[in-house]
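User: Sequence for Cofilin below. Tokens please.
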Amino acid sequence: MSQDKKTIIVEKTSESEDHDAFIADLPETECRFAVKDFLYESDPAEGARNKILFITWTPDNAPIRSKMVFAASKDALRRSLNGIQAEVQGTEHSEVSYETILEKVTKRKSTN
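Assistant: Structure tokens for Cofilin:
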């Protein structure tokens, strides 16, 4: 987000598949949006899969004003992105860990 909180700026891009490196780049006191190609294998018979994720990172110790701006901007940004297959919101690293996201993207919807 720009200093005046009016423009979303692409700060970094990466083609790395290293999820731990992605998590390490999330700042402890600043909010971020991220789009990530999440590669995983939940069933060896199905092989490798991927989901395009929209991630909202709002750590607990980020400034309240920043959290409010990100919350207000999220829906408009999300609607402008095509191909997003899952959304993830995180306030701490465990909420965006590989295992947590894997569980979310591999959940089967109930047909009840």
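The radius of gyration is 15 Å.
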